[in-house]
Amino acid sequence: MEDRKRKEIEYYDEAAARQLEEEGFVPQVLGSYDKKVLDYGCGNGVHTKFLAEHAREVVGIDLSQGALAIARRNAEKEKVENKAKFLAMDCEKLEFPDNSFDVVFDGGTFSSLDFGKAIQEITRVLRPDGVLVGIETFGHNPLANAKRALNRITGKRTSWAASHIVRQKELARLRQNFERVEVFYFHLISLFAFPLLDSPGGRLMLRLLEGIDDLPLRIPFLQKYAFKIVFVCKNPWRDG
Fold first, then answer.
1. Taking the model in full, what pTM does it have?
2. Residue 151 in contact with residue 159, Cβ under 8 Å?
3. Are strands 57-62 and 84-88 parallel, antiparallel or unpaired?
4. Cβ(185)–Cβ(226) under 8 Å?
5. How is the chain split into domains, by residue range?
6. What is the DSSP string of 66-104?
7. In terms of DSSP bridges, do strands 101-106 and 126-137 run parallel, antiparallel, or are they unpaired?
8. Which of 99, 168, 92, 91 is nearest to 136 (CA)?
């Protein structure tokens, strides 16, 4: 196993995960309840419950055996263990046959990976009408980048992860590999509420600022500075 993969830590943002569910991206993609879903880089299974609630089967993969053990316990606690299983696997070297999944869900894993290798494997295991749904931090906001630099210096974030945040060039790569790509942008003004989330009224402030975000994030120039993005990519082109 490569050293940088061993060092990577799973990164999840609870507010963005909540938005992903509330905005209806997962129910929209999994509407038939008969989809087989790959929870790509599942970590401790934080997304597994709402995936399993809208799918026929969920397969979570991660390199961390410790995280997978927690994911299994969480699935049992949330009573979705009959629809979810977890496997130790390298996201850049998937061990599944071609055309194995209807949906691949990425909950913030790409910064830990070689993006090109990851997309090549994802498009391979997706069925021809398959969908990739991803939620990632976006790499163009100066304030967020300053915090990432500080986290790298203090050891809270690896150099690899800090330098491989999804940016516009990765979105361009997605458009080369999927017939249709939709990108949704979150957290611009509301980014300022994040340090206050544990303070009294912090979460209420986040909700209010998220509502204000709606207008500026309709402006293409400002979308680049969103902190979080969700992308929905349909119909993979394997030779893209």
1. 0.85
2. no
3. parallel
4. yes
5. 3-9+32-187+229-235
6. HHHHHHHHHHHHTT-TTTEEEEE--TTS--SPTT-EEEE
7. parallel
8. 168
| 3-class SS of residue 226 | coil
The token duo for 134 is: 């991803």
Report whether 58 contacts 83 (CB < 8 A).
yes
Flag residues of the chain having pLDDT under 50: 1-13, 15-16, 22, 240
Contacts of 234 (CB under 8 A, 6+ apart): 129, 130, 131, 178, 179, 180, 181
DSSP H stretches of helix in the chain: 3-7, 14-22, 25-29, 48-52, 65-77, 115-125, 142-154, 159-163, 168-177, 202-213, 220-223
What does CATH list as the number for 3-9+32-187+229-235? 3.40.50.150
Locate 137 and state its tokens: 């931090």
Q: Please name the residues in contact with 103: beta carbons below 8 A apart, sequence gap of 6 or more.
A: 29, 30, 35, 36, 37, 38, 55, 126, 130, 131, 132, 133
Could you tell me the end-to-end alpha-carbon distance of the chain, in angstroms, rounded to an integer? 28
Amino acid at 175: R
Q: What is the pLDDT of residues 49-61, one digit of tens each?
A: 889 988 999 999 9
Rg (CA), the chain: 17
Q: Cα torsion at 102, 21, 167, 209 (round to 10°)?
A: 170
Question: Taking the alpha carbons of 65, 68, 3, 121 in that order, is the dihedral positive or negative?
Answer: positive
